[in-house]
Amino acid sequence: MTYLSDIEIARRASLLPIGVVAEKIGLSEDQIERYGKFKAKISFEAIESSSSNPDAKLILVTAISPTPAGEGKTTTSIGLSDALNRLGKRTIVCLREPSMGPCFGMKGGATGGGYSQVVPMEDINLHFTGDFHAISSAHNLLSAMLDNNLHFGNSLGIDERRIVWNRVVDLNDRALRKVVLGLGGVFNSVPRESGYDITVASEVMAIFCLSKSVSELKSRLGKIIIGYKRDGSPVLASDLRADGSMAVLLRDALKPNLVQTLEGNPAIIHGGPFANIAHGCNSILATKFALKNSEYVVTEAGFGADLGAEKFFDIKCRQAGLKPDAVVIVATVRALKYHGGVEIKDLQTPNVKALEAGFVNLAKHIENMLQYGLPVVVAINAFPTDVEEETQLLIDKSAAMGISAIRASHWADGGAGAEGVAKSVLDIVRGKSSQFKLLYSDEASLLDKVEAVCRKIYGADGISVDKSVRKKFDQFSELGFSNLPVCIAKTQYSFSTDPVLRGCPSGFIVPVRDARVSAGAGFVVVLTGDIMTMPGLSRSPAAERIDIDENGQIIGLF
Question: pTM value?
Answer without folding.
Answer: 0.95
